Amino acid sequence: MVLTDPPYNISSEFKIEFDGRKDISHDFGDWDYGQVKPGDWIPQAVDVLTDTGVFISMYDDIHMGRILNELRRKQMEIRQKIYWHKTNPVPQFYGVKWQRAVEEIAVATVNQGDGHHFQEDRGQRHNVIQKPICRGKERLDHPTQKPKELFRPIIKWWTHPGDTILDPFTGTGTIPKVAQELGRHYIGIEQDAQYTKVGRNRLKQRSL
């Protein structure tokens, strides 16, 4: 499996106060200002998948088409979209529209049949995951850190124990940490030395 949360290219310079924290920035770092586009990494990620491989990626809901277009170019079978409903979304900055409480997750497979690793024996479930934005003790110093519980059902339903999960944008190591807890192998790629250190420390601990 390739499972990742890449840069969305949606940063801005606005700051707000939210959930007890002041001056929350919508600037996610230099890496989010158009420097990494889906076409830069999806072809390489797809090429490392096996014949039963699964590709799952988050992306901004408005621009999800960029991910889907690259997957089509690689002749991937687009299975569905999963929706993360954030139960505590950030307030709307401009006050002219509703809060953005949903992020989309694309699911695609290498083959067009049923040979991929979806575990139907786990039963039916909705394609909506309702979880709050990462907070409390789990929250680390990363502007777009996602909660572990967002990825847990995805890994449970779309992989088998012992499968390998590649995350090309590992950040603070959330996906490798969940993979570790669920008995999957993991490969994480992260260019920021600070986040790499945080991720390695998380993998050494029982929690976080």
Automatic annotation (TrEMBL):
Keywords: Methyltransferase, Restriction system, S-adenosyl-L-methionine, Transferase. It holds the Pfam family N6_N4_Mtase. It is an enzyme of class 2 (transferase). Its EC number is 2.1.1.113. It catalyses: a 2'-deoxycytidine in DNA + S-adenosyl-L-methionine = an N(4)-methyl-2'-deoxycytidine in DNA + S-adenosyl-L-homocysteine + H(+). One of its GO terms (biological process) is DNA restriction-modification system. Gene3D superfamilies: Vaccinia Virus protein VP39. Residues 1-197 form the DNA methylase N-4/N-6 domain. GO terms for molecular function: DNA binding; N-methyltransferase activity; site-specific DNA-methyltransferase (cytosine-N4-specific) activity. Belongs to the N(4)/N(6)-methyltransferase family. This is Type II methyltransferase. It comes from Haloarcula marismortui ATCC 33800.
